[in-house]
Amino acid sequence: xxxxxxxxxxxxxxxxxxxxxxxxxxxxxxxxxxxxxxxxxxxxxxxxxxxxxxxxxxxxxxxxxxxxxxxxxxxxxxxxxxxxxxxxxxxxxxxxxxxxxxxxxxxxxxxxxxxxxxxxxxxxxxxxxxxxxxxxxxxxxxxxxxxxxxxxxxxxxxxxxxxxxxxxxxxxxxxxxxxxxxxxxxxxxxxxxxxxxxxxxxxxxxxxxxxxxxxxxxxxxxxxxxxxxxxxxxxxxxxxxxxxxxxxxxxxxxxxxxxxxxxxxxxxxxxxxxxxxxxxxxxxxxxxxxxxxxxxxxxxxxxxxxxxxxxxxxxxxxxxxxxxxxxxxxxxxxxxxxxxxxxxxxxxxxxxxxxxxxxxxxxxxxxxxxxxxxxxxxxxxxxxxxxxxxxxxxxxxxxxxxxxxxxxxxxxxxxxxxxxxxxxxxxxxxxxxxxxxxxxxxxxxxxxxxxxxxxxxxxxxxxxxxxxxxxxxxxxxxxxxxxxxxxxxxxxxxxxxxxxxxxxxxxxxxxxxxxxxxxxxxxxxxxxxxxxxxxxxxxxxxxxxxxxxxxxxxxxxxxxxxxxxxxxxxxxxxxxxxxxxxxxxxxxxxxxxxxxxxxxxxxxxxxxxxxxxxxxxxxxxxxxxxxxxxxxx
Length: 633
Description:
The chain is of the alpha/beta class. It has 15 helices and 28 strands. The strands form seven sheets. It has an eight-stranded parallel sheet with strand order 18-17-16-13-10-9-20-19. A hairpin with a 5-residue loop joins strand 25 and strand 26. Helix 7 packs parallel to helix 8, helix 10 runs antiparallel to helix 11 (428-436) and helix 13 runs parallel beside helix 14. The longest helix has 24 residues, at 3-26.
């Protein structure tokens, strides 16, 4: 071996030894320590009816510090309280309506002045003014058409955030069904013109807060920081900008929230205080028995299991009866409603938290935001069960504050009408029967109506990829009372079934990525049938927004005769009639049976073709036809 080779060999070995030493010394190293990691809420607003604020401070051994606040007019620091976790401290403030916007200045000094290892530090806390009620976002109403988007799967508008720094760096891989694909807030904002063209007025996004979990974080329902937008979707400022952009287009935003649980990598679960979570020390799964809430014969054990059990093993269950969690959740949703100027909340897994608390929470939100639209997810099978979770006409549930629910019972009925033959209580008569039970609700117009979502088989697949059945379901949805919602891709006949995995109904929207071979955001990129479906929804969405019979009117229905169901929506001067035939042969409908619904009108206009003609005694319907007419005086 030459001298030069020996020297190179020695240098390489030295470098190798240094690298081994460095790796050994840094293996398992924790992130640099900070005096303060989180303040929840991170800022606050002056003018809420409850002027008490509790800030959860998460910092390195913060319980060993004494917190003081510099004098600020209108704001009093009531005190602090420690917790069973040395990294958690509660700061209680009283904020009078006379306080002005600005920054509160806090000092934190070691309680033990002899402690040489700890140094004091300071932090500021921002106070803002609430927007006047007149400037709050408008409600979601029956005239609106909501579009549900799974953000990771809709459109990638900013490829740079695909590599955003997180603790569990799940590689972007569009081939992975349960992986991250790269859709984001920027992509959604870029498609506002497309959505407006379709007739969409409201967006509901699956949760957009940070989901820094090691797997299956793309869906958004295992939040790890409730006050921060997931960096792979964007930032808080980008989310606020999206909400602003929607308002400029007279569109609205509904946020998906989860007071029932968080992800198990959430900082609150890693640094929990006693009583924050149910079954903290051993996993106990919920029995998913929502019926135990109203079942007069329910076992106390099963009632408790429904409310206190975890949804899944990676989603710790909040204990809403803990006073700190009680305040934390209320402040959380007041903060987002004010900060983003939201039009509404969809509350996930509504039957599983404590119902007394949920009624209190919803009542608090509506007291502070009178225009806020709130509806709870009630994934159940029957009308009485879901009615028990909202304002209703049922004795014993007078204290319910939830205005509306996700109307699963109607969803199942419309599904029946699309793939089951019509019988006494099946097929189209399942819709008739379900609507007849609306007397249980205080206001069924407050319900979110839908055909599918991120958890259900896509509607075109449910309809057996039968275009006539698809049209029947879409027409029923848009003519029905309530607030209609369609899942992204329904307008282009996207398919997928949940029998193997829910991820099969969460495919990417074609054209949302620059590398996609086709772009179905454009008419040119869609097939003839997809364009027909797109225009079908567009026509009904416009009708929904402009005709008072649909967006403010009453409902009249007629039981299906000879496989034909008739649904009428009417107001003082307007009327829409839908005729739905579920038969393999054409039929002639005797319109004289519905003469009471034609009083004051002489002509009828086909809303799809524009054809207008005098109201006949008999009307021919093709096999499996769905016909929608506007009545004209």
